[in-house]
């Protein structure tokens, strides 16, 4: 029996995607080519790795065992490569980063380009999605993200958190909206206002939390969502157009507040912070390129992030 590195990567891809046709699309080959490769691997191993029916696709016990051991082997190989790279001071290999759409476009994309210019042997990959961790990527899989940039809550304890930058949430609206809206003096006044809601993850997005500056006691206000979207850029556009009041991250609205397009409301109250954090799975914490990129991010955003005047 002879198992090659390509075989280990192949079985992990099958496990992640969950179908031969899906893997064929990702690899840009025909489904028969993937089926042939699977049959060849099963023939060499002497065991069936996949069970298929018209409705189901799943790995056999042998398939799961091979995938499990493949993850261990590939992670160990990665560690060896990292150790050798540190000795020779040659930082190379793939760096897979996941981040949210808005922050990713504005900050991560240009920063990764600059990082790649500094380290051209690194294969950089940036995947943007407003889901913190994509469902098809397990934190310990060999094809998982090396770093996932999170804003706000950290719901997944499998990742090691590295603080990158402070970021507060801001209540704001446009002068157009405020010119013809009811008075807003305390958070409970929001009940009389049109509010714009960003619907993401599984959060209760119409329940907003406020505390007086210096206090740890929060007041919880159920707002009226007159308009809502799953895209933060859309919410900001609606707010700037005078459609209502929104809560957005400082990184996103600081320029608009600075030039008067938006006005910060209830400055004597604060909302829960939404700090920028780099999450790293346990299997990647010793990676030289991961540590280097995190340090690069910290240096960029410290001592003061670019959105703070």
UniProtKB/TrEMBL annotation:
InterPro entries membership: LysR-type_TF_proteobact-type, LysR_HTH_N, LysR_subst-bd, WH-like_DNA-bd_sf, WH_DNA-bd_sf
The terms under GO molecular function for this entry are:
DNA binding; DNA-binding transcription factor activity
Sequence ranges assigned to domain HTH lysR-type in this UniProt record: 3-60
Could you tell me the superkingdom of the organism this chain comes from? Bacteria
Q: Does the keyword Transcription regulation apply?
A: yes
Q: Which Pfam families match?
A: HTH_1 (PF00126), LysR_substrate (PF03466)
Q: Which PANTHER family match?
A: HTH-TYPE TRANSCRIPTIONAL ACTIVATOR TTDR-RELATED, HTH-TYPE TRANSCRIPTIONAL REGULATOR
Family, according to the entry, reads as follows: Belongs to the LysR transcriptional regulatory family.
The protein depicted here goes by the name: LysR family transcriptional regulator
Organism of provenance: Advenella incenata
